[in-house]
Amino acid sequence: MATRRLKPADVFFALSSDLRLEVLKLLADGRKMSTSEMATALGRKLDGTGKLLKVMSAAGVLDFLRGEDRRQAVFQIPAAYRATPGVLDFGFCVVEVKKL
């Protein structure tokens, strides 16, 4: 999926929660996770986790993709932001994941 032009205020809002930063850490290596997998990993309820992922996806921090069987949706940090291992570069903001 092609990356879009990000709005700094939207990205900063999406990253302004400790829980959303945990999502960032879980996906920083390029893995894809469904809402239910993410909820389990975070120890949170499914509906609350879905809201977190929706905020991050709307800001462009995450891509929303269909799973292999098209019945399941997964989320992933776009590859363009993960060019350097352990670093997420949003163009106007660089996040060193290990420092989170």
CATH class: Mainly Alpha
Computed Rg: 13 Å
Secondary structure tally, helices? 4
**SSE series:** HHHHEEEE
- What is the name of the CATH architecture? Orthogonal Bundle
- Please report the distance between the alpha carbons of the first and last residues: 27 Å
Report the count of strand segments. Answer: 4
Helix coverage percent of residues? 25-40%
**What is the CATH fold-level name?**
Arc Repressor Mutant, subunit A
Shape: globular
> What structural category arises from helix and sheet content?
alpha+beta
Spans of 5+ residues with little confidence (pLDDT < 50)? none
Q: How many domains would you count in the coordinates? A: 1
What can be said about the biggest beta sheet?
Answer: 2 strands, antiparallel
Mean pLDDT: 93
Strand content: 5-15%
Quickly list its features.
Arc Repressor Mutant, subunit A, alpha+beta, 100 residues, two-stranded antiparallel ribbon, globular, 4 helices, two-stranded antiparallel sheet
Explain what you see.
This protein has 100 residues and is an alpha+beta fold. It has one domain: Winged helix-like DNA-binding domain superfamily/Winged helix DNA-binding domain (Arc Repressor Mutant, subunit A). It has 4 helices and 4 strands, in the order ααααββββ. The protein has helices at residues 8-14, 18-27, 35-42, 46-59, and strands spanning 63-66, 73-76, 87-89, 94-96. Helix 3 packs across helix 4.
Write the layout of secondary structure elements.
Blueprint: H1 8-14, H2 18-27, H3 35-42, H4 46-59, E1 63-66, E2 73-76, E3 87-89, E4 94-96
Antiparallel strand pairs: 1-2, 3-4
Helix pairs in contact: 1-4, 3-4
